[in-house]
Amino acid sequence: MSCPSPLFQGPSDARSKISVLSSPDPRIAPAVSAVDRALDWYIREVPGVERPPVSLAEAEHLREVLAGSRPRADEYFEILVNFARTMYRFGQLDASVPQVNLGDTLTALSLVPHPDESPWTFDTRIDTDALAKLQFRETSVGLGRAQRDNREGWWPHAQKNRAFIEDAVRQTRGRGLAVVLGAGHAFDLPLVELVRAFEKLVLVDIDAEALNATVAGVLKDPGLRARTELRLLDLTGVNGQLVRRIDEAVASAADAGEARDRLEALCWTYRLAPPRLLPREERADLLVSSCVLSQVSWPQRVYARRVYERRFSSLPGPLERRWARHFTYLELRLQQDHLTSIAGVAEQVALTCDVVSHPTVLDAAGTERQTGQAIPTLGVPALLERVPKLFVVQGHASWEWGFSRATRAGNGARKDVEGARLTAPE
């Protein structure tokens, strides 16, 4: 079904079953209410629709999961994604449809406990062992190499990214504190402009070497440097715990099958109470999360596979899809927790992210062409499908990033990048 039928009209007055959930964090309430209304509306309207994208039974199943009356299981994940994507498409076509997206549903899910879960703590301190095992330093060096090897493709992206952030500066009333996440190499960040615009600039990254080198190379003026604070933080808040649990799951398994079961359970039972990145006594005027969202969740999958295959053999081909489904779920949750962590901590948020990657190859004539494959880094083709009602979208932009050139030796990549300027709801 490509658009709402005449039956999909108007809000529902049915009492929500999700509303029994409560959170001590009021930031979460708008997202939960949005999912609440959308499910009520869908369940009321779907019986009159032939071949709906999500059946009535599936929608009721999802509501029970979100109400905590039915345990989470891997089969509900596809239902959740399908429901969220369906409602987002309907909302784009008809403003009277309850507005909800995947970001809202994942946020609501964060309130639902799992009977077998172990507590997770949001701790942004750097765990050096986890940092080494997840190879963050190697990744940072690789990004620097990619930028040097593809300057022509990176320069237009950097210009667009800087311009988007500079526009957010102009829209920000306060001039006390700006915080930049993923400051690292700062290829695409207007650091000098930011430190001149605000009384204090906080630069955050996980790679100390890259951060120190950037500040030394960009902020040469002692006066500007004096107003700049460097913070080394693990933006996921869980990498140390996650690495230890991956190690334990594989080491304690009697065989490969048990190891896979343990890693799958680790993915499905992950749940973090709504995190907050900045201390409650600290509020920024502007917070920039630049090309961070897609990066907070990929290394964990790579590490888990490396640990598994080091002890056992390579992952069998038929199990690739199953493995991918479990870790995709974990990655989406980690990404959503990053968005939650920056909600309500600043007057304005400038969020930029690579959203879809398009592999490229050289044809017989040596011309670089896209393969036609599109790889979403956020599980959806648009950034706004991941922005929950914790935020109000005040501005949006998109551009292309020529990330790497194809060669005879390997594929290249072009990325779709989007930016969203966000504020907290009134």
Mean pLDDT: 90
Query: What share of residues are in beta strands?
Result: 15-25%
Report the major sheet.
9 strands, mixed
Tally of helical segments: 14
Low-confidence stretches: 1-16
The secondary structure category is alpha/beta
Helical coverage, percent range: 40-55%
CATH topology-level name of the largest domain: Rossmann fold
What is the number of E strands?
9
* Domain count: 2
Give the full name of the CATH homologous superfamily of the largest domain: Vaccinia Virus protein VP39
SSE order, one letter for each helix or strand: HHHHHHHEHEHHEHHEHHEEEEE
Q: How far apart are the termini?
A: 35 Å
Task: Round the Cα radius of gyration to an integer and report it.
Answer: 22 Å
Shape-level CATH architecture of the largest domain: 3-Layer(aba) Sandwich
Please report the first level of CATH classification, the CATH class of the largest domain: Alpha Beta
- Large-scale geometry: globular
Can you characterise this structure?
- The chain is an alpha/beta fold and 426 residues long.
- The chain has helices at 29-45, 56-67, 74-93, 102-109, 128-133, 136-149, 151-170, 191-197, 208-218, 222-226, 239-251, 256-269, 298-311, 320-341; strands at residues 177-181, 200-205, 228-232, 284-290, 346-362, 368-370, 375-376, 392-404, 412-423.
- Strands 1, 2, 3, 4, 5, 6, 7, 8 and 9 form a nine-stranded mixed sheet that branches.
- Strand 1, helix 8 and strand 2 (200-205) form a beta-alpha-beta unit.
- Helix 11 (239-251) packs parallel to helix 13 (298-311).
- The radius of gyration is 22 Å and the shape is globular.
- The two termini are 35 Å apart.
- The model is unreliable at 1-16 (pLDDT under 50).
